[in-house]
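Open question from group meeting: does this chain pack into something compact, or does most of it stay loose? Before anyone orders reagents, we agreed to write out a predicted structure and look at it together. Recording both the input and the output here so the notebook holds the full record.
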Amino acid sequence: MKTPGILTVALWLSAAPVAALAHGDIDAKHGGITKTQNDLGFELVPQPDGASIYIEALRKPDQYKAADGKPLKDDILHAPLPTGPKGQFGLHLVQSHVIPTYSKNQKAAKDLLRFMQTKENFEPWFETGQGFYTPPTSGWESHKVWTANPVMAPFATIGKTGLAPGYPGEPNAMAAEVLSKYLIGNMFAAAIKGQSAEDAVKSCEGQLKSIYGA
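Structure tokens returned:
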């Protein structure tokens, strides 16, 4: 696992600012952690669902304001993760409909799914979601919902870039364990807290090998 990618991570971790974990002295307006750095003040607010921050600001523009007093919804942008050596990918929530083999209503269930997912029935639901629910097929990438609200436009192509944990391997129990233990995030956090980048990467690599039996 000693690859250029690991070296790149180590170099990036070496440059990560320790101030990213510091607490500032500006007032927290939304119950979060504040910090002032280079004349830039920001507040880190915990949310169980990151997308809900924008959706909530969109629904209640008079309640959520930016530092200049303007609606927060107009100060939020989305962007895809940067492209790396192996391409551009993203981790997105995937929802599927299934019909258990033991169901006694196989035909009715299939008919219901076909009805729900025909364009004339699915499209109004898709438009109501304003891009929050993204179909995985390419035919929806040019839908008017993305131009109606450009903030959501980066999600138009997640059917192509959204990959399951463990890719290009199988999305199995080992991949799920890596995800549930936050190994990659903890690696970055360890380096930010002061551990050397090389040691942080080595520790993460050791845990990955232990899980995958490498």
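Observations to bring back to the group:
Residues 197-212 form the longest helix (16 residues).
The mean pLDDT is 80.
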